[in-house]
């Protein structure tokens, strides 16, 4: 039975964002994220720097989340944290702090799978956003993951397709690097693509059987394409940037849509929920909301797509209702069973 006074403090530290959120049942009272800009100069996340920044950020971020929610720590019902997957050093900061706080407040400790959280972010009670009904298909697309998941219930999920190499977010960022764009390059490709012709340049889609994905071949094809054209015209990128970005984005979206079509055909499920940082991409959102395939598509609020603690909190709330708690012996896991 639902307790009307469940307050969850959620902590997310899987990569380079330190985040904390407070939920009252399935409503978000606060959702605070501290970004680590130091990684931009290195063209990617540096694990050692990330864990140090988490140590600096975690106390002020949690304090800010509690203050914004106007909730005292003594009111908390449980502490939820990201157990994995992610960078081990980063995960350890959040796990250790969560254990300590749980012990100090004598409240339950709840471990959350980061990928489950991206999927269940759709169940945050947010005005104007519908929630999918079970079963549904989840397309989880981020810098580290590309998965199609059959979601039967809150805790019964099955991966039916995933990338065999690079994740879709890597494909965007590495393509951007080839074009000389700064990190993170994915949002920049999206930005320039809006002004370009998606059919200007053709890139071959990889042939991968079943519902699995592959993006490494596409990245290589883009590299060779740019090298060849720059030899003929040193200003090729500058003169064609919008069209190149639009063509790359179009190809990646087509790969995702083709696999979703196949997943719908194989499962008979027409409810599609997307999540993960790459679901913020405007081209992907537009294509999925055009409703040309007869699917019902669910896209969470923008702030719940990238790494955040509110999505950890909604899983924490559901686990709280079913008494899925951990002891202080629980450990972080860089790789974790789905």
TrEMBL record:
<keyword id="KW-0808">Transferase</keyword>
<protein>
    <recommendedName>
        <fullName>tRNA N6-adenosine threonylcarbamoyltransferase</fullName>
        <ecNumber>2.3.1.234</ecNumber>
    </recommendedName>
</protein>
<feature type="binding site">
    <location>
        <begin position="140"/>
        <end position="144"/>
    </location>
    <ligand>
        <name>substrate</name>
    </ligand>
</feature>
<dbReference type="InterPro" id="IPR022450">
    <property type="entry name" value="TsaD"/>
</dbReference>
<feature type="binding site">
    <location>
        <position position="281"/>
    </location>
    <ligand>
        <name>substrate</name>
    </ligand>
</feature>
<keyword id="KW-0012">Acyltransferase</keyword>
<feature type="binding site">
    <location>
        <position position="118"/>
    </location>
    <ligand>
        <name>Fe cation</name>
    </ligand>
</feature>
<keyword id="KW-0408">Iron</keyword>
<dbReference type="InterPro" id="IPR000905">
    <property type="entry name" value="Gcp-like_dom"/>
</dbReference>
<feature type="binding site">
    <location>
        <position position="307"/>
    </location>
    <ligand>
        <name>Fe cation</name>
    </ligand>
</feature>
<comment type="function">
    <text>Required for the formation of a threonylcarbamoyl group on adenosine at position 37 (t(6)A37) in tRNAs that read codons beginning with adenine. Is involved in the transfer of the threonylcarbamoyl moiety of threonylcarbamoyl-AMP (TC-AMP) to the N6 group of A37, together with TsaE and TsaB. TsaD likely plays a direct catalytic role in this reaction.</text>
</comment>
<feature type="binding site">
    <location>
        <position position="190"/>
    </location>
    <ligand>
        <name>substrate</name>
    </ligand>
</feature>
<dbReference type="Pfam" id="PF00814">
    <property type="entry name" value="TsaD"/>
</dbReference>
<feature type="binding site">
    <location>
        <position position="114"/>
    </location>
    <ligand>
        <name>Fe cation</name>
    </ligand>
</feature>
<feature type="binding site">
    <location>
        <position position="186"/>
    </location>
    <ligand>
        <name>substrate</name>
    </ligand>
</feature>
<keyword id="KW-0479">Metal-binding</keyword>
<dbReference type="InterPro" id="IPR017861">
    <property type="entry name" value="KAE1/TsaD"/>
</dbReference>
<dbReference type="InterPro" id="IPR017860">
    <property type="entry name" value="Peptidase_M22_CS"/>
</dbReference>
<feature type="binding site">
    <location>
        <position position="173"/>
    </location>
    <ligand>
        <name>substrate</name>
    </ligand>
</feature>
<comment type="similarity">
    <text>Belongs to the KAE1 / TsaD family.</text>
</comment>
<feature type="domain" description="Gcp-like">
    <location>
        <begin position="27"/>
        <end position="313"/>
    </location>
</feature>
<keyword id="KW-0963">Cytoplasm</keyword>
<dbReference type="InterPro" id="IPR043129">
    <property type="entry name" value="ATPase_NBD"/>
</dbReference>
<keyword id="KW-0819">tRNA processing</keyword>
């Amino acid at each position: 039975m639902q307790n009307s006074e469940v307050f969850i403090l959620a902590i997310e530290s899987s990569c380079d964002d330190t985040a904390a959120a407070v939920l009252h049942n399935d409503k978000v009272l606060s959702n605070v994220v501290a970004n680590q800009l130091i990684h931009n100069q290195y063209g990617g996340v540096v694990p050692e720097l990330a864990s140090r920044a988490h140590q600096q950020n975690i106390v002020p971020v949690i304090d800010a989340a509690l203050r914004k929610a106007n909730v005292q720590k003594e009111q908390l019902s449980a502490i939820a944290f990201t157990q994995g997957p992610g960078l081990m050093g980063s995960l350890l900061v959040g796990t250790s702090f969560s254990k300590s706080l749980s012990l100090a407040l004598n409240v339950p400790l709840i471990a959350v799978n980061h990928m489950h959280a991206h999927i269940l972010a759709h169940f945050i009670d947010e005005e104007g956003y519908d929630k999918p009904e079970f079963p549904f298909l989840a397309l989880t697309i981020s810098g580290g993951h590309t998965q199609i998941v059959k979601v039967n219930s809150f805790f019964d999920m099955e991966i039916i397709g995933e990338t065999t190499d690079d994740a879709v977010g890597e494909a965007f960022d590495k393509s951007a690097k080839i074009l000389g764009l700064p990190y993170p390059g994915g949002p920049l490709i999206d930005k320039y693509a809006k002004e370009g012709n998606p059919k200007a340049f053709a890139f071959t889609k990889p042939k991968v059987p079943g519902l699995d994905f592959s993006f490494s071949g596409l990245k290589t094809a883009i590299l060779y394409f740019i090298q060849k054209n720059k030899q003929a015209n040193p200003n090729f990128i500058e003169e064609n940037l919008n069209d190149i970005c639009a063509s790359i984005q179009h190809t990646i979206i087509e790969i995702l849509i083709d696999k979703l079509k196949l997943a719908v055909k194989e499962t008979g499920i027409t409810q599609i929920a997307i999540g993960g940082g790459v679901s913020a991409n405007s081209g992907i959102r537009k294509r999925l909301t055009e409703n040309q395939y007869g699917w019902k598509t669910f896209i969470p609020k923008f702030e719940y797509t990238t790494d955040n603690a509110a999505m950890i909190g909604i899983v924490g709330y559901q686990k709280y209702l079913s008494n899925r708690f951990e002891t202080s012996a629980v450990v972080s896991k860089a790789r974790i069973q789905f």
